[in-house]
Design goal:
By secondary structure, the chain is an alpha/beta fold. Helices cover about 35% and strands about 20% of the residues. The chain is built from 4 helices and 5 strands. A hairpin with a 2-residue loop joins β4 (about 75-80) and β5 (about 85-90).
């Protein structure tokens, strides 16, 4: 897993607010098998949209204050931020069917004007 971050709440909020593009925060844990399964998809998404989207990976076990702050109930949990504001919460474990398709639809819905049309597929 690349790009793993350690944050306190203030540092996290500063990082999210200063991002010039939408941010997906992937809360994960080393023991979470689904977290490891979706990580290659997030890597692919990050590579296909390097200037339009940022992905932060946060170990929920090592960042308990953030986990509690966002009231995580399951892992993985993806939080979508735009212009520093939380706009969507996504728990892949609750998705029935194709996770990739669900994530694509969510991105198109959340950020239609921020992502170029050709980037809607990854």
């Amino acid at each position: 897993m690349k790009g793993i971050q350690q944050f306190n709440i203030e540092g996290f909020q500063r990082q999210i607010r200063s991002a010039p593009v939408p941010v997906i925060v992937h809360f994960w844990a080393p023991w979470c098998s689904l977290c490891h399964l979706i990580d290659p998809l997030l890597d692919q998404l990050e590579q296909s949209l390097p200037q339009q989207l940022q992905i932060l990976r946060v170990n929920a076990d090592e960042n308990f204050a953030l986990s509690r702050h966002f009231q995580l109930t399951s892992l993985p949990t993806l939080l979508f931020f735009d212009r520093g504001e939380l706009v969507q919460r996504f728990e892949p474990g609750c998705v029935r069917g194709d996770f990739r398709q669900a994530l694509q639809q969510l991105l198109v819905h959340l950020f239609p004007s921020r992502l170029p049309a050709e980037s809607h597929r990854f």
